[in-house]
Amino acid sequence: MDEFLRKVRLHRISQFCSDWVKFSGTMKRGRIPKRRVQRLKEYTLFFEGCKQDDELGPVAEKCLTLISKLDDYRDTFNKGENFDEVQRQADVIIGLVNDIERLMGKVFENGV
User: Fold this and answer.
1) What are phi and psi of 80, to 5 degrees?
2) How deeply is 79 buried, as exposed, middle or buried, from its count of CB atoms within 10 A (0-12, 13-18, 19+)?
3) Measured between alpha carbons, how far is 66 from 81 in angstroms, rounded to an integer?
């Protein structure tokens, strides 16, 4: 992959991570706004384009899976009725975030 393209993609992934931190911060307030989920969904096309990349493809796949789970999580969280379901969904999302962090660690080990 072209070095410039690689840096652009890594920058875009870092933007996604920054938006993820903002999203996760909204949970402390007791309600997740629909706009926060929509903001993360805006990265879908970008990650679809990265799936073919040998190095960033696995990261893109995990991010797409994470994005696909956010609407259900937001709805369940905002209802506040079924704590066990919220916890189950949160555990899945936390697992995906941990996988993304692990995969990004491998990318950065290979040099930026």
Assistant:
1) 65, 20
2) exposed
3) 23
